[in-house]
Amino acid sequence: MASKFVYMDYNATTPLRPEVKDLMKDALDVYANASSMHESGRRARAEIEKARAQVASLIDASNPQTVFFTSGGSESNNTVFMTMYHLAKKGTRKKIITTAIEHPCVLNSAKYLQDEGFPVVFLPVDADGRIDMERYRKELGPDVLLVSVMAANNEIGTVEDIAEIARLAKENGALVHTDATQAVGKIPVSVKAWKVDYLTMSCHKIYGPKGIGALYIRQGAPIEPLIRGGHQEAGVRAGTYNNLGIIGFGKAAELAKAELDEYREHVGALRNRLRDKIKASIPHVRINGHPEFVLPNTLNVSFPGAEGESILLYLDLAGIQVSTGSACASGSLDPSHVLLATGLGPELAHGSIRFSLGKYTTEEEVDYVAAQLPPIIERLRKMSTVSAEDALTQH
Questions:
Q1: How far apart are CA 68 and CA 135, in angstroms?
Q2: Which of 20, 247, 249, 352 is the most buried (most CB within 10 A)?
Q3: Please, which residues have CB within 8 angstroms of residue 174's CB and are 6 or more apart in sequence?
Q4: Which one of 82, 87, 260, 328 is the catalytic residue?
Q5: Is 328 among the residues known to form the active site?
Q6: Pairing verdict, β 198-202 and 175-179
Q7: CATH topology for 18-258?
Q8: Burial 95-109 (b: 16+ CB within 10 A, else e)
Q9: Looking at domain 6-15+260-393, which of 3.30.450.20, 3.90.1150.10, 1.10.357.140, 3.10.20.30 is its CATH number?
């Protein structure tokens, strides 16, 4: 085992921050069913409603009752898409517009609707990962039911112009959903400014517990429950409340909002430091993602002539934990669908590493990673049958 430990996989998940952990320990005694009318039940309900207001504040939602707790981002996204399934069956609008670079839970939900016979468009993106707005405008029309575009990409960090995307969709009478799982807590997120109908988030991306997320639903927007049962969450999501997770979510959201500017400045500077050191010490690299509209913590780099999983394993031996793509797609030998959509060839896509920094990343850690990388890349390139320069020009 390596003597040093550096975690740079914050986009996959984040550690539970001490303030949240301490509050959750104190909340272990808040065990009562929040649907019960006795004193303990009312106490649990009060804690849940406090957390709901904290989460609503993080996304600039004026009405906390538009925030509904779920088990996480995947459930929230599936709830939206299954709502569209029911609406499309009953109405004249049936077309779904999404993008080629969405998270697998959105892509697979959209493909399910496609398999059920509904028209689905997977918008292409440019080399930086932003959607083709000209194509988007052409696809809009009176037949469009939903536009679903992620706020920020989990692999390359590119941030989309959700406000403009939503404005155009609304002009055509379509509903708008954004998967903001990677954006919340990293950049300003405002359902007021964006004017979306649905927004997805997950607590474990903002230093809170796993197994808890939320779905924002604009007041009056149609919704069909994915999980049917009791009256919890105004009938939108049945099931006994996860008191502990919800309380932790509320605290994590409160802290994320309070520290947003500090986080962006701290992590953004470290990301740029790592990027500049990699470019200065390793020839023939490609930085993936938009140079300006990008998450402050995300750095995706292609190392032509070196295979991504080999880089990851060598870094792991040095105590450095990174990703070759989204954690949700790990186990697949296929190149990243996100990188392929930006025009990268399989060679470059396979040779890409995602460094996702976080609140606890230090300058010392960045410098350690920057020092360990060059000999690893050099070693792997010597074993490759394709030169780095050739691979870079073949994308």
A1: 33
A2: 249
A3: 93, 97, 140, 144, 145, 146, 147
A4: 328
A5: yes
A6: parallel
A7: Aspartate Aminotransferase; domain 2 (3.40.640)
A8: bbbbbbbbbbbbbeb
A9: 3.90.1150.10
Residue pLDDT tens, the chain, 395 long: 677 999 999 999 999 999 999 999 999 999 999 999 999 999 999 999 999 999 999 999 999 999 999 999 999 999 999 999 999 999 999 999 999 999 999 999 999 999 999 999 999 999 999 999 999 999 999 999 999 999 999 999 999 999 999 999 999 999 999 999 999 999 999 999 999 999 999 999 999 999 999 999 999 999 999 999 999 999 999 999 999 999 999 999 999 999 999 999 999 999 999 999 999 999 999 999 999 999 999 999 999 999 999 999 999 999 999 999 644 545 556 789 999 999 999 888 989 999 999 999 999 999 999 999 999 999 999 987 666 555 566 55
Return the biggest CA–CA distance within the chain.
Answer: 71
Domain range annotation of the chain? 6-15+260-393, 18-258
DSSP result, 115-129: HTT--EEEE-B-TTS
Written as one letter, the residue type at 37 is: M
Who's near 342: CB < 8 A, 6+ residues apart? 101, 125, 126, 127, 128, 129, 156, 288
8 A C-beta contact, residue 69 and residue 237: yes
Whose CA is closest to 259, among 178, 184, 179? 184
Q: Nearest-5° angle of CA 134, CA 135, CA 141?
A: 100
Lookup result for tokens 């939900």: 109
